[in-house]
Specification:
The protein is 87% helix and 0% strand. It is mainly alpha-helical and 473 residues long. The chain has helices at 3-35, 42-56, 60-77, 80-96, 100-117, 120-136, 140-153, 159-175, 179-195, 201-213, 217-233, 238-254, 258-274, 278-295, 298-315, 318-372, 380-410, 414-472. It has a domain at 347-472.
């Protein structure tokens, strides 16, 4: 084996051990925070969730243990947000362990909860995690559907979330062999990371995958190595380092450098086995089997074929795919029904708004007619009654118009929504009083003018009658 390759593999190994050590340092810090907590509150839940997340990408089975503890505490505290985050973390941990049905079921439950709350942040997070679960179970078409939905819901100001969406979309498009689409989101991710003054190693890894797909192996290798260096110095994510090792293995395989490819594949297999990551373990085993076959080493190939078969049996079976297919169908049916219900509600709301506008227009025309009429005397009480009706209809119209916005900013809190409506009423009522005062004043003036005109007409008629009487006499 070339000395440079041996040295690089040694550095990779040391880096992975360093990243693991750094994870353990973070884990120890979180454990210390939990142990020193004076009371069990939402902060403890968040610390357990962070602890679970530290394990997710290299020890997802351990991550699940702490995730369940966080869920139980969140339940006892009725900590809604903590329970929601726990469900997302549970789905991700199960997906990395390839418990696909449980992962998808949990992600769908979190999505349903977010939809019921009608909270944009909850909804965007839940949709993104459903997409991640679909990606991890290798259903890329569904992963793209949910990744795009999450992208559409992400606010332009939420840079970190947009970066996450670029990662998901770029990676999934690569696996779908839609390289041009992948490059669009990867470049967008680079741009966003520069804006946020952060280097994201994962985008370099994705570009390595792009050039690997395009058979530009030297460029692929340079991006993989750059990703590795940044990963080692910045994020220190053990799972990503294993993915880079698998990528480099594929580059050397394509270049016909079988020995180098085997070295990286063994490294990836050892690390994935150590980190309990079944998918990466299977990928490295498949590569090792293929590489030893190419080299003509049938005995070694047979060893890895046996390991691959055992792992495939546990990860891939017809019953699992049937269950996932049924769950996907049920969720699609639920989403269609939900879309129909939303459409009906929106249609009904638009209809009510049109009725309110019509009522306001009719009542306003009546009031104007009564005010402008030069022959009808109207009591100011009638106008007051009509103006109150207009006030009520205007208030209902405004309520219908802003209700969705009010729900989104108050997160469906009855108290906050009531305060919002009271604030709107406090603005409308003074305006109504001024208009009512002006209307009454104009009405009194109009009535006086009509009475004066009628009085003059009566006097004129009396005078004419007297003149006729005098002439007759």
């Amino acid at each position: 084996m070339p000395k440079r390759l041996t040295l690089f593999l040694l550095v990779c190994f040391i880096a992975l051990q360093t990243s693991t050590a750094q994870n353990y340092h973070k884990i120890d810090s979180l454990r210390l925070l939990i142990q020193n907590a004076k009371k069990v509150d939402s902060t403890v839940v968040n610390n357990y969730l962070s602890l679970s997340f530290q394990y997710t990408y290299y020890k997802p089975d351990s991550g699940l243990v702490y995730n369940e503890i966080a869920g139980k505490i969140a339940d006892s505290l009725h900590f809604e947000r903590g329970k929601f985050q726990q469900q997302l973390g549970k789905a991700l941990n199960h997906s990395y362990l390839r418990n696909d049905s449980i992962a998808l079921k949990t992600a769908f439950a979190a999505l349903k909860f977010a939809e019921e709350k009608e909270d944009l942040n909850y909804l965007q997070s839940a949709i993104r995690y459903v997409g991640l679960v679909y990606y991890n179970i290798r259903q890329f078409e569904n992963a793209i559907v949910y990744a795009k939905k999450a992208w559409q819901l992400t606010l332009p100001t939420n840079t970190q979330s947009l970066i996450n969406q670029c990662m998901s979309l770029g990676e999934t498009y690569i696996d779908l062999n839609l390289i041009d689409s992948a490059v669009i989101y990867i470049n967008k991710g680079f741009e966003l990371s520069k804006q946020s003054k952060r280097l994201i190693p994962f985008f370099y890894y994705l570009m390595g995958n792009v050039y690997l797909k395009r058979s530009q192996y030297e460029l692929a290798l340079s991006f993989y190595k750059e990703s590795y260096n940044l990963e080692n110095n910045i994020t220190k994510n053990a799972k990503d380092i294993i993915d880079i090792e698998i990528g480099i293995t594929q580059v050397f395989e394509k270049k016909g450098k079988t020995d180098s490819a085997i070295s990286y594949a063994k490294q990836a297999y050892y690390h994935s086995k150590q980190m309990t990551l079944p998918r990466e373990k299977l990928e490295s085993l498949l590569l090792l089997t293929s590489l030893y076959k190419q080299k003509g080493n049938i005995d070694s190939a047979f060893v890895y074929i046996s390991l691959t078969s055992d792992l495939k049996d546990s990860l891939i079976n017809a019953e699992k795919f049937r269950t996932i297919g049924l769950m996907t169908f049920n969720e699609e049916s639920r989403q269609e029904k939900l879309a129909e219900e939303k459409s009906k509600i929106a249609e009904e709301r638009n209809h009510n708004i049109q009725l309110a506008i019509t009522a306001i227009a009719i009542l306003s025309v009546i009031i104007l007619f009564l005010m402008l009429s030069r022959s009808i005397l109207v009591s100011h009480k009638v106008v007051e009654f009509l103006s109150v009706l207009v006030l009520l209809v205007v208030f209902e119209f405004i309520n219908l118009l802003i209700h969705p916005f009010l729900e989104s900013i108050t997160h469906h809190s009855p108290v906050l929504m009531l305060l919002g409506l009271v604030a709107i009423a406090s603005l409308i009522i003074p305006i109504h009083h001024r208009l009512e005062h002006w209307t009454t004043q104009k009405l009194v003036e109009k009535n006086k003018a009509i009475r004066l005109a009628n009085a003059k007409k009566t006097i004129e008629e009396i005078e004419k009658s007297n003149k006729k009487t005098d002439t007759f006499i």
